[in-house]
Design brief:
There is one protein chain. This protein is of the alpha+beta class and 217 residues long. The protein has a single domain, classed as Hotdog Thioesterase (Thiol Ester Dehydrase, Chain A). Helix content is 23%, strand content 30%. The protein is built from three helices and ten strands; from the N terminus they run E-E-H-H-E-E-E-E-H-E-E-E-E. It has a six-stranded antiparallel beta sheet with strand order 3-4-8-9-10-7, covered by helices on one side. It has a two-stranded antiparallel ribbon with strand order 1-2. The longest helix has 18 residues. The structure holds Palmitoyl-CoA. The site of Palmitoyl-CoA has 20 residues, from helix 3, strand 7 and strand 10. It comes from Rhodococcus oxybenzonivorans. Belongs to the THEM4/THEM5 thioesterase family. Pfam families: 4HBT (PF03061). This is Acyl-coenzyme A thioesterase THEM4.
Length: 217
């Protein structure tokens, strides 16, 4: 497993040497895990989809539960502290290799904004074929974190995230989400983003990201 420092160069081209000292945040570094990590994560995503969509006979559920318990026993000895797992740090994988994140690919990452593309799956179902309303703030919040980072701002937390739902967000349909920094005022970074299906606006979002003070969690 090889590690490389995340790019923490500011928009002015100067490296942010204070990066590690903002708030109490651990430093996250991008990682390239071994060849089976992608297969493992995709397999787990398929299991998530199945776990919310099957209605299997009791004996089949019992078999599945036995296997899940065995799998958990295999993995449990390898639990590591926050920031050490490849989950969330594997830039080239959908959702950066984290099951928490929708499996979307980053298409653009820079000071002028971040765009990613992907689909919501059965796991993300809310009702009547639409994505759960709570999955959109998750997608937007993660995007906001990446936009702040790509803009070269210090580690910041979401103070507010305002989502407007403009149209139903379908499952299993290619979508894009894109946002950029509107303005910076002291510790405050104001960001807007849009979720689209083709040219159709599904949702838009405005967020205030606040730079953490030393020691803030
Ligand atoms: C491997 C490589 C990967 C690379 C690629 C990925 C990179 C990835 C990076 C990860 C980056 C993490 C991204 C986490 C993103 C979350 O999701 S964080 C989780 C959700 N957010 C939280 O839990 C935050 C909880 N809240 C807090 O901790 C505190 O309220 C805060 C936000 C730190 C602010 O507290 P504070 O420092 O005491 O701020 P305070 O003095 O009250 O306010 C400062 C100013 O902001 C204003 N303000 C504060 N809150 C609000 C509000 N809600 N509305 C309006 N104004 C407000 C105040 O009025 C004040 O304004 P001024 O008077 O100065 O004009």
């Amino acid at each position: 497993m090889s590690e490389q420092a995340a790019d923490v160069t500011g928009v002015d081209g100067k490296r942010d040497d204070d990066y590690e000292h903002h708030g109490g945040f651990p430093k996250y570094e991008a990682v390239t895990p071994g060849p089976d990590w992608a297969r493992f994560v995709e397999g787990m995503r398929t299991l998530q989809d199945l776990a919310v969509s099957v209605d299997a006979p009791d004996d089949v559920v019992a078999q599945a539960a036995d296997q899940v318990e065995k799998l958990a026993a295999v993995l449990t000895p390898y639990v590591v502290p926050e920031g050490r797992s490849p989950a969330g740090r594997t830039i080239e994988l959908p959702g950066r290799g984290s099951l928490l994140m929708p499996p979307w690919h980053i298409e653009k990452f820079g000071p002028d904004g971040v765009r990613s593309a992907g689909e919501f799956r059965r796991y993300h179902l809310g009702g009547n074929g639409a994505a759960h309303g709570g999955t959109l703030p998750l997608l937007f919040d993660d995007l906001m974190g990446m936009i702040v980072h790509a803009y070269g701002r210090p580690i910041s937390r979401t103070a507010y995230l305002h989502v407007n739902y403009r149209a139903i967000t379908p499952l299993n349909t290619p979508l894009t989400v894109e946002g950029s920094v509107d303005r910076v005022e002291g510790r405050k970074t104001f960001i807007t983003a849009q979720l689209k299906k083709g040219d159709t606006l599904l949702a838009d979002c405005e967020a205030l990201m606040l730079e953490l003070l030393p020691g803030q969690p």
